[in-house]
Amino acid sequence: DTGVSQNPRHKITKRGQNVTFRCDPISEHNRLYWYRQTLGQGPEFLTYFQNEAQLEKSRLLSDRFSAERPKGSFSTLEIQRTEQGDSAMYLCASSLSAATDTQYFGPGTRLTVL
Amino acid sequence: GENVEQHPSTLSVQEGDSAVIKCTYSDSASNYFPWYKQELGKGPQLIIDIRSNVGEKKDQRIAVTLNKTAKHFSLHITETQPEDSAVYFCAASRGNTPLVFGKGTRLSVIA
Q1: Helix, strand, or coil (residue A87)
Q2: CB A41 within 8 A of CB B104
Q3: What is the distance between the alpha carbons of residues A56 and A41, in angstroms, rounded to a whole number?
Q4: B43 falls in which pLDDT band (50, 70, 90)?
């Protein structure tokens, strides 16, 4: 499968724990986006990368959230000291380059904070 | 910033009928408008997109229209089938920038 992959698909954690999600974009895609989707809502932008450079962070991305893309390939999203309000689907998308606008989404990681 | 409004929030149609979903956007600089279909437990799947230099685009049973002056765009699905049942999202961006999504339309096609 050459699509965007995300792991894990589901994560259940207790409030206060740290969690980390991984996203593998489509091969050779330079842009990588993270979105968050809560029940009954559309995806909301969190942050995005051009290769290894983090270009923009949404105000939704509190200081408990950090994202990296160290080698310009896969990316990780870490949430520290999770809160119940962090429960959501975390979606990753990739696009070929800065010159292209079409974004392809992965299956998402569903986080449940107890 | 950009704001995208989508309606209706739910839509039920008989199999074989047409479905229309409408979105409006606020940022006149937006020039890229994709539509995604999301099935339960899955990520959004791109079904069609349109850029601001065209007014209409069609792909088999799916078409999208764009009115830049009024800042609205619509998704049209003809000859609906049960497998079209899903949540549909419109989005807007200035191209190669983060997408701003509508809140979604839950489409139910009744056999």
Answers
A1: coil
A2: yes
A3: 22
A4: very high
* Structure-block tokens of residue A87: 């429960």
For an interface test with A, the pick among B37, B47, B99, B105 (most A C-beta atoms closer than 10 Å) comes out as B99
SS (H, E, C) B29-95: CCCEEEEEEECCCCCCEEEEEEECCCCEEEECCEEEEEECCCCEEEEEECCCCHHHCEEEEEEEECC
Alpha-carbon distance of B105 to B91, in angstroms, equals 12
Q: Do A100 and B96 touch (CB under 8 A)?
A: yes
- A4 and A23 Cβ atoms separated by less than 8 Å: yes
Tens-digit pLDDT profile for residues A58-80: 998 899 999 999 988 999 999 99
Residue among A35, A91, A99 minimizing CB distance to B96:
A99
Gap between the Cα atoms of A34 and B36, Å rounded:
16
